[in-house]
């Protein structure tokens, strides 16, 4: 019997829509990192939701539409500092905290992000 993915355990697409809505409301208003998000907010949210679906063990929706994620390469054109990564993680922590899931699931979900956030630091 296959174990349920984190994607499924947090509530699937509905949870990721809630997470990305909350997260990008915070990011687009953040004084430090809003400069990194200048294109269409709805497109950014859609891409993030597709990526997170795949990142959390759900269907490979991002790869189906955009190819291999290559996240570091896609972020290289942007100057990203450690402070930016920390700010990004603070926004994500608040967004994860808004989900109607258990504290253990919130912790498990949030703990998937720090390594990736700091991997994007390039300056």
- Helical segment count: 8
CATH topology: Globin-like
Nearest-integer average pLDDT: 94
Q: Determine Rg (CA atoms, Å).
A: 14 Å
Helicity, as a percent range: 55-70%
Terminal-residue CA separation: 45 Å
Structural class: mainly alpha
Shape: globular
Q: Biggest sheet, open or closed, and with what strands and sense? A: none
Q: Could you tell me the number of beta strands?
A: 0
Order of helices and strands: HHHHHHHH
Low-confidence stretches: none
Q: What would CATH call the homologous superfamily?
A: Globins
Strand composition percent:
under 5%
Our count of domains comes out at 1
| CATH level 1 name | Mainly Alpha
Q: From the 3D coordinates, which CATH architecture would you assign?
A: Orthogonal Bundle
What does this structure look like?
- It holds the Pfam family Bac_globin.
- This protein has one domain: Globin-like, CATH 1.10.490.10.
- It is 64% helix and 0% strand.
- It contains eight helices and no strands.
- It has helices at 6-10, 12-29, 41-55, 61-66, 71-75, 82-97, 103-110, 114-119.
- The chain is globular and about 45 Å long.
- The N and C termini lie far apart (45 Å).
